[in-house]
Amino acid sequence: MSDRPRIDPSESVYGAVHLGYLVVHSQRLADWHRFGALAIGLHTDRPDADTLRFRLDDRACRFLIRRGTTEDVTALGWHVDDHETFDRILARVSDRGVPIREGTAEDCALRGVERLWRFPGPKGIETEVFTTPITTDEPLRMLSSGWVTGEAGLGHVAIVSREPEFMHAYYRTLFDSRLSDFIDENVSGLRMKIRFLRVNERHHSIAVANIRGLKIDPIRTRVQHVNIQSATLEDMLAAFGRVTDLGFRMAWSVGQHTNDRELSFYCVTPSGFELEVGWNPVVITPELDRAWTATTYQGISIWGHNTVAQSPLDRFDQLRNVVARLRTPEITVPELIGSTGK
User: What Å distances lie between residue 154 and 52, 208, 318, CA to CA?
Assistant: First the structure.
């Protein structure tokens, strides 16, 4: 993995890790192109007939959509600031006997990175880590004026879990994640506690909704939603209008969250998980971080975020998917739940 001297894996890596990209496998590339380019307003590239990529900034790739049958997020790519931190993270993984594989040259080219290493993650979502993204001077061709990335990373992912402690411990062990806050919420009759974890200045890069005790996972996809952040309120509202006008399904109307105060809406991607397009969330600066105290909020939203009714066909598909996963165990990575020595 590395010829550099052995480093201490117990030293914190918090603040040096950022969500870099996500990988989706889908048979619906034409729908994804229409959704990303015309509805959300992202820059779109088509390297080959089986590949679609979205850009939000100067990175060569932020969303990689590959032809495949999964119809889901299959990997999350995490940008690590420097080689020493990179080695520290890989040491935590290898010391616990978790298999690590180096990405091929094709893998790296598709994702727009120089090198990457991958290993198992919760719910079967592979974790990929890299240090050097490929950037491009090619002008962005998109309907939006811009997106907020930088130190905060691409955005965040939200996952429902019947094994939430495993997932919390995974990201704590791997990235020294910190707890931002909790939300208690009733969603469609299901009472759940959602835990929000940060690894940098973004209020949360991972949200984990606790559904422990349920025999089935009510969400077909491995992730419930992915979030990206508009540069302006006008951009966010314009995307809302385009999604509606083009006939893509809206899951939650525009509203404002209780904890990170982000204004956003949620729509359904061609693969079935949701995309949250937001604006102006709280940023946890180093000064705020030092004094931060986790709070429990009652309810996801201050206002708005009203559910948009599903069609009978949507409800039938959801029921069919739930029955198909009855009593299916949730994938965990038990090796990565121990202390990092801090």
Answer: 17, 18, 29
State residue 330's pLDDT score: 83
What amino acid occupies position 82?
A: D
Q: Computed over its alpha carbons, how large is the radius of gyration of the chain?
A: 19
Residues 42, 54 contacting (CB under 8 angstroms): yes
Name the helix (H) or strand (E) containing 286: helix 286-291
Q: Please check whether residue 243 is in contact with residue 236, taking contact to mean a CB–CB distance below 8 angstroms.
A: no
pLDDT digits (tens, 9 = 90+) for 109-150: 999 999 999 999 999 999 999 999 999 999 999 999 999 999
pLDDT beneath 50, residues of the chain = 1-2, 312-313, 315-327, 340-342
Instruction: Collapse the DSSP code of 32 into the 3-class scheme (helix H, G, I; strand E, B; otherwise coil) and give the result.
Output: helix
pLDDT attached to residue 1? 47
Q: Is the dihedral of CA 239, 245, 251, 256 positive or negative?
A: positive
Contact 112, 134 (CB under 8 A): yes
Element (H, E) at 265: strand 263-268
Q: HSE of 106 in the Cβ direction (CA atoms, 13 Å)?
A: 4
Give dist(CA 202, CA 156) in Å, integer. Answer: 8
pLDDT digits (tens, 9 = 90+) for 62-87: 999 999 999 999 999 999 999 999 99
| Token pair listed for 109 | 């080219």
User: pTM value?
Assistant: 0.92
Per-position b or e across 25-43, b if 16+ CB within 10 A of its CB: bbebbeebbbbbbbbbbbb
Extract the tokens encoding 158.
């939200």
232 vs 294: CA distance, rounded Å:
28
DSSP label of 11: S
Q: What is the DSSP string of 204-258?
A: -SEEEEE-TT-SS-S-SSS-SEEEEEBSSHHHHHHHHHHHHHTTPPEEEEEEEES
How many whole angstroms separate alpha carbon 264 and alpha carbon 248?
Answer: 16
The two tokens of residue 227 are 């979030």
Q: What share of the chain is helix, strand, coil (3-state, %, to 5)?
A: 25, 35, 40
Q: Which amino acid is at 325?
A: R
